[in-house]
Design goal:
Oligomer: single chain
Helix content: 55-70%
GO biological process, one term: meiotic DNA double-strand break formation
Shape: flat
InterPro entries: Spo11/TopoVI_A, Spo11/TopoVI_A_sf, TOPRIM_Topo6A/Spo11
Structural class: mainly alpha
Domain Topoisomerase 6 subunit A/Spo11 TOPRIM: 1-60
Number of domains: 1
Protein name: DNA topoisomerase 6 subunit A
Largest sheet: none
Pfam families: TOP6A-Spo11_Toprim
Radius of gyration: 13 Å
């Protein structure tokens, strides 16, 4: 992660909409602490059809995004 990524993560942790979702807080803290980030491109190995037909619709349905 770049210093800007770390700053963005810390800034997000201060947002009320993030504080209301403990899962997001946990994941952001882990990312900031480990200085590693996860990106959706990492899932492309499963194929773009998986992303568009399974992963993204599920995330949107569950309102589980950051």
């Amino acid at each position: 992660m770049t210093e800007q990524d770390i700053k963005t993560g810390k800034d997000l942790l201060e947002e009320d909409f993030v504080k209301k979702n403990p899962g997001w807080v946990e994941e952001l803290n882990l990312m900031v602490k480990s200085k590693q980030k996860a990106e959706i491109q990492a899932l492309s190995s499963f194929g773009f059809q998986y992303l568009t037909e399974m992963y993204l619709p599920l995330k949107l349905q569950q309102k589980d995004w950051l």
